[in-house]
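Much of what follows relies on a compact textual record of a protein's fold. Think of the row as the fold of the chain written in a discrete alphabet. An example makes this concrete, so a full record is given next.


***
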Amino acid sequence: QVQLVESGGGLVQSGGSLRLSCVASGNIFSLHAMGWYRQAPGKPRERVAVITWNGGTNYANSVKDRFAVTMDNANHTVFLQMNSLWPEDTAVYYCAADSNDYDLTMGYGDYWGQGTQVTVSS
């Protein structure tokens, strides 16, 4: 089993920045990729960014050039630096992890965190 704990959400004004963190614990050696998803009220969950253990990344078009996903392999932590935030970025952000980066990119992550709220005011 793997446990994921997110932190760093909050309230920010439009144009501002936030940095989310997610620490993985447990059977981390089974993992190959970690990433971030988000879900806004009344909308389906959507992929934000995924990063593999060797540094490969992919992003949703809506956040490309504004968000950056990085990983601290030594501490089993993934970060999401969010810049130029818009009100449309308001959502609960979930950390996810999987042994297969394709599955995680498609939304079929084996492990999910509890989520952290990000609210962007206009």
